[in-house]
């Protein structure tokens, strides 16, 4: 019995040793698998990293540097708000589109107007408006109707009387500089900042810069003894009458063609004198009109009538309501009214 118990005890001990050995082998195998799996995963990770690095290298190799420029915000002019106003910029005419981009020292929110008038006929609504930006920049444009061609008169202007609030109070009757002109409205005299240019609309492209006017006032400027020095030129379908005179600013001037044996009304042009008494007028060329036959010569008659309704009170103050203060070789009496009238004879070249 005792022997049987010993045998049973030895059998149990061997079984325990056997099971312990198997458990140790399984743990070693499991650890080996884990290590093997870890090695595989590590290998895959290293491979993936290598692929990513390679792709990144390829990506870097395939990129190109792009040139760029950082747009700097332009600062306002140092003299912004000064009473002596400046205008700078470029006009462009592209077929029927008239545009201008520029810079000024006017206060921000000052209202600028682009006005266009056709010499050929009335251009209704030929106006664009904008406000000056904080940095003094401005941009305007206007598309002319298809039927407009030939000479047009372009004006970029700032009128304090048509501003509001602080801007109106800041500039009204306070303007100075070469761009400033006077004009009459409702029997009142106002100031404006103005740049004016005549151009030809012919379907092409034309560019011109805003330039500061240079006025050369004659010594006897504003003297009631009026003189006029005209120059006649031809431009396209127009007779161009360029005038220098001692007539005061913003005086209405009329020029018309007097054609022998014809009663005409369409061959005339008008304008207002500039600050130095000069002006330019355009008249349709009678020589280009097929209705006029056997034309050998004709007259251009230049007239300044102080009593004309287009003249303001500043004109009648100098020359008299009926021109009674006028003097000189070209003064004519017409129904108790004195006018300045000068005649130029044009000979038609064969």
TrEMBL record:
Residues 1-20 form the signal peptide. Residues 29-64 are annotated as: Disordered. Residues 46-58 have a biased composition (Basic and acidic residues). The keyword Signal applies. It comes from the Bacteria. Keywords: Signal. This is DUF4179 domain-containing protein. It comes from Oceanobacillus profundus.
């Amino acid at each position: 019995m005792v022997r049987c118990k010993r045998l049973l005890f030895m059998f149990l001990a061997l079984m325990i040793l056997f099971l312990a050995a198997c458990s140790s082998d399984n743990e070693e195998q499991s650890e080996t698998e884990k290590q093997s799996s870890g090695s595989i995963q590590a290998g895959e990770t290293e491979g993936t990293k290598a692929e990513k690095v390679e792709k990144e290298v390829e990506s870097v190799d395939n990129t190109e540097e792009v040139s760029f420029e950082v747009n700097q915000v332009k600062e306002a002019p140092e003299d912004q708000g000064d009473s002596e106003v400046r205008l700078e910029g470029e006009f462009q005419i592209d077929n029927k589109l008239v545009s201008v981009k520029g810079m000024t020292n006017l206060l921000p929110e000052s209202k600028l107007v682009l006005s266009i008038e056709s010499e050929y006929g009335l251009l209704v609504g030929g106006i664009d408006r904008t406000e000056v930006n904080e940095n003094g920049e401005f941009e305007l444009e206007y598309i002319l109707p298809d039927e407009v061609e030939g000479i047009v008169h372009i004006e970029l202007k700032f009128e304090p009387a048509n501003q509001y609030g602080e801007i109106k109070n800041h500039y009204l009757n306070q303007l100075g500089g070469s761009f400033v002109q006077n004009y009459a409205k409702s029997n009142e005299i106002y100031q404006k900042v103005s740049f004016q240019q005549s151009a030809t609309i012919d379907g092409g492209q034309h560019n011109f810069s805003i330039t500061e006017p240079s006025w050369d006032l004659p010594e006897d400027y504003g003297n009631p003894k009026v003189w006029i020095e005209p120059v006649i030129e031809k431009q396209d379908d127009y007779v161009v009458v360029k005038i220098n005179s001692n007539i005061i600013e913003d005086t209405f001037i009329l020029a018309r063609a007097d054609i022998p044996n014809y009663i005409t009304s369409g061959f005339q042009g008008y304008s207002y004198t500039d600050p130095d008494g000069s002006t330019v007028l355009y008249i349709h060329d009678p020589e280009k009109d097929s209705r006029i036959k056997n034309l050998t010569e004709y007259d251009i008659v230049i007239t300044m009538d102080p009593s004309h309704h287009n003249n303001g009170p500043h004109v009648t103050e100098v020359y008299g309501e009926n021109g009674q203060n006028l003097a000189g070789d070209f003064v004519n009496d017409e129904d108790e009214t004195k006018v300045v009238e000068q005649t130029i004879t044009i000979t038609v070249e064969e």
